[in-house]
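Task card 7
Instruction: Convert sequence to structure tokens.
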Amino acid sequence: MYPSKISEEEKILGYEICEITNPEQQGLFPSPTITVVIYPLGESDRIIKVNHPSLGIVYAHQRYGLYEFQDQENRTPDWKPVNTYWDPNEAIAKALMGFETMFPNRVPIFKKIPPSIT
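Output:
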């Protein structure tokens, strides 16, 4: 689901190979971390390369935090979807422009700082 191979174009754009906490945590012996291709957008935002089962390779802008309706005190934040793109350059450009989502009525995400994976 998360490719770890980085293309020359992705390298030129500033994507990097990183180790992150495994979001799937499935299987008999799930790995606590996985290696992925990421473009960091600050402490609580990232673009991650994803091999989507029906769309193929896409670039998902994600934000670490909680939705507005979630209990801010007793809920553990996690990576929420902001938007998805087929082009790695477009993903960066729109995220940096503040283009939040193609869905105008999406619930706001309150940013949190993700924990270190060390």
